[in-house]
Specification:
Blueprint lengths: L2 H30 L7 H23 L4 H14 L1 H5 L2 H20 L2 H8 L2 H13 L5 H24 L12 H28 L4 H31 L7 H23 L2 H21 L7 H19 L2 H16 L15
Bound molecules: cytidine-5'-monophosphate (C5P).
């Protein structure tokens, strides 16, 4: 891995931490505002379309801003190699379901219960990574993932107990439906994420072409969801009913986040992505309650420390290879031989 890729990896991880914290806060905000509620099925379609257009634009730039060349390239990548394109149908179907089910889960479960249960995707991701990518984790890494889950759970449950929030009409909520929805999201997130990683790293197509393929299926399947669930409302109120500037901001944020996930998975892997997202879960909790007069108590500090400790534990389990990469880069850059005792020294030529 060269220096540029390494830098991109850390920048994309950092941005993912900030992005997923902000998307959690803003989604909760738009879903709890009084007044006309936007259609979540249409929001899924708009986010998919935005991702598709962005990736097509990047392909256009990569083809020297030549529309004919771009069209020929995309035709070849998507239509001629349709067998390759069809592989993306599986993650597209799962992500479309998942992106819709997240809204079902949020509407039927208390926010904290949803957040905690959704963290189970860390474990499903690790399981599928082992099964599909033959990426075995050491006992220490499994231990760190369990610690991570426990840490996030403590942070969320503690906050739930502290901030009861405004009274919610629970008669319209069905916790069993919410729980089933979030569990399905966890399985989907783990499987689709690892499947996409396998396709991305196993072939020659770029991350942008892969996302064009994913976005085409995602948009079509999302439209099917609108037709199936909200066709009547759309015919009466329109597709963009209830879209405020804030709703648009959330959709843009979600689309950006999806692309960021793809970049992070390209340069690292799905488990590292899960670690970043768990850290952002703690940050978003601090930020959300800070805005409402947050007070750190022992339980919160304990949960947050467990999350940070777990991330450290997981990453130091792979630090040998990272150190080796740095040593190799230094050697190549400065052409200085590396001594086994760990010290750099110039040699007389
Ligand atoms: O929670 P999880 O990490 O599974 O969420 C992944 C999100 O990233 C989904 O909303 C999915 O639509 C999006 N994604 C994407 N492009 C990819 C991979 C994921 O838009 N290549």
């Amino acid at each position: 891995m060269n220096y540029f890729n390494s830098l991109l990896k850390y920048i994309s991880l950092l941005v993912l931490v900030v992005q997923s914290a902000s998307v959690a806060l803003s989604t909760r905000y738009v879903c709890t505002l009084p007044g006309d509620r936007f259609l979540t099925t249409s929001a899924v379609v708009v986010a998919e379309t935005l991702k598709l257009l962005t990736c097509a634009f990047v392909v256009f730039l990569q083809n020297g801003c030549d529309p004919k060349r771009t069209a020929a390239f995309l035709y070849d990548s998507v239509v001629v190699r349709r067998g390759d394109t069809l592989k993306l149908l599986v993650p597209a179907l799962l992500y479309t379901l998942q992106n819709n089910l997240v809204y079902v889960a949020v509407s039927n479960l208390p926010a904290a219960t949803f957040q905690v249960t959704y963290q189970l995707k860390i474990l499903t991701t690790a399981l599928f990574s082992g099964m599909m990518l033959r990426r075995s984790l050491s006992r220490r890494q499994w231990g760190s993932l369990l610690l991570l889950f426990a840490g996030v759970a403590i942070v969320q449950v503690q906050q739930h107990g502290r901030h009861k929030g405004p009274a919610v009409d629970s008669s319209s909520q069905n916790p069993a439906v919410g729980l089933l929805a979030v569990l399905a999201c966890c399985v989907s997130s783990g499987f689709a994420g690892v499947y996409f990683e396998k396709i991305l790293k196993g072939g020659s197509a770029s991350i942008w072409v892969r996302n064009v393929q994913l976005g085409l299926f995602g948009t079509a399947l999302g439209m099917l969801g609108v037709w199936w669930k909200d066709s009547e409302t759309v015919s009466v109120n329109g597709f963009f009913f209830g879209y405020t500037p804030m709703v648009w901001a959330v959709i843009f944020n979600k689309a950006f986040g999806g692309l960021l996930v793809a970049v992070v998975v390209r340069y690292t892997d799905n488990i590292v992505k899960s670690l970043a997202m768990s850290l952002s879960c703690v940050i978003s909790t601090v930020l959300s309650v800070y805005l409402f007069d947050f007070h750190v108590d022992h339980l919160f500090a304990c949960g947050a420390a467990m999350v940070i400790g777990a991330i450290y534990m997981y990453s130091t389990a792979t630090s040998m290879s990272t150190t080796r990469i740095w040593r190799c880069s230094l050697q190549t850059l400065h052409q200085i031989p590396y001594r086994v005792d760990g010290q750099l020294s110039m040699v007389d030529s």
